Structure formats: structure tokens, C-alpha cells
Amino acid sequence: MENLNLPTYSFKIKSELQRKLIFDSIRKKYVVLTPEEWVRQNFIQYLVNEKRYPGSLIAIEKKVDVNLLPQRSDIVLYNNNAQPVMIVECKSVKVKITQDVFNQIARYNMKLRVPFLVVTNGLQHYCCQMDYDKKSFKFIPEIPVYESIKDLPD
Q1: Which long-range contacts link 5-14 to residues 24+ away (Cβ below 8 Å)?
Q2: What would the pLDDT profile of 19-44 be if each residue is shown by its tens digit?
Q3: What's the whole-model pTM score?
Q4: Residue 7 counted as domain residue
Q5: Residue 89 is part of which domain span?
């Protein structure tokens, strides 16, 4: 798989029926190793190891209904109060981060209304902090560490 703009992590990878599978430590199962999954698994490890998010507060492919249509957000992070506080949308390294990608995560956020949105293709990572009172957002230089958001109010 391709090198990413993230620290290097070790993964359990196996072949089965001519497909490569990677062990997802959050879902506790092997999943098909696609280019997008490679980015997602590396970003999960980044969140857990560098940003100190507890694995127990991370949901993968969380179902979100958008305009009555079921969608799945790649990663949703929760605080200590079981409230969603961050959505992460992962793309393959070959996918450019465009307005369409931000529109996709914004649609998920219409339902979840989290304080932070992250978009990554493994090479570029963007984090926005939402301000619902002002109906605006701002890009921030760093993805918040868990300690800074664990007790955010509902």
C-alpha cells in the first residue's frame, strides 16, 4: 500500500480468496483492504496513538440518515457523554480533497451536528471547527487531542 502523511503503524494483514484483508481493531474483524480502507485504518491508529482517542469511543461506518437515505460516515468520535464530537471522512490517496468531499461530510453533519469535521486522503488532512451560533466554521491547524474535547457539553 502507499505511504501516507502519517506515522507508520503495524497491521495484521492476510490474504483470503485472492483478496487482502486488514484487521480493524475497532470493529474487531478483518475487512477488505481497499485504498480507502488503508487510509481509514492508518487514520484510526493516528487518532488512538497520537491524539489519544479511546477506541471504545470510535465508531466506524456509522449509519447516518441524510434526507431519509441511509449513508455511512467513515469515522465518528464520541466524548465521555456519548455525544458525537467529530466526523472523519477518509478518501483514497488518489482522490483529491475537493468541495464535493466537504459537501459529503457536511451532509452527514446536518444530522450529527458535531463540533469538528476532518477530511483526509492520507496525504492531506483538513480539520474544521464548527460555530453553530454564528453559522460558520474555521479551519484549524491541528486535529484536537481527546483531552481537549472529552468533556464538551452536549
Answers
A1: 5/122, 5/123, 5/124, 5/125, 6/42, 6/43, 6/45, 6/46, 6/122, 7/45, 7/46, 7/49, 7/50, 9/41, 9/42, 9/45, 9/46, 9/49, 11/41
A2: 999 999 999 999 999 999 999 999 99
A3: 0.91
A4: no
A5: 13-148
- Per-residue pLDDT tens over the stretch 10-21: 999 999 999 999
Q: Total domain count for the chain?
A: 1
Are 20 and 35 in contact by the 8 Å Cβ rule? The answer is no
What is the CATH number for 30? Answer: 3.90.1570.30
Q: Are 111 and 66 in contact (CB under 8 A)?
A: yes
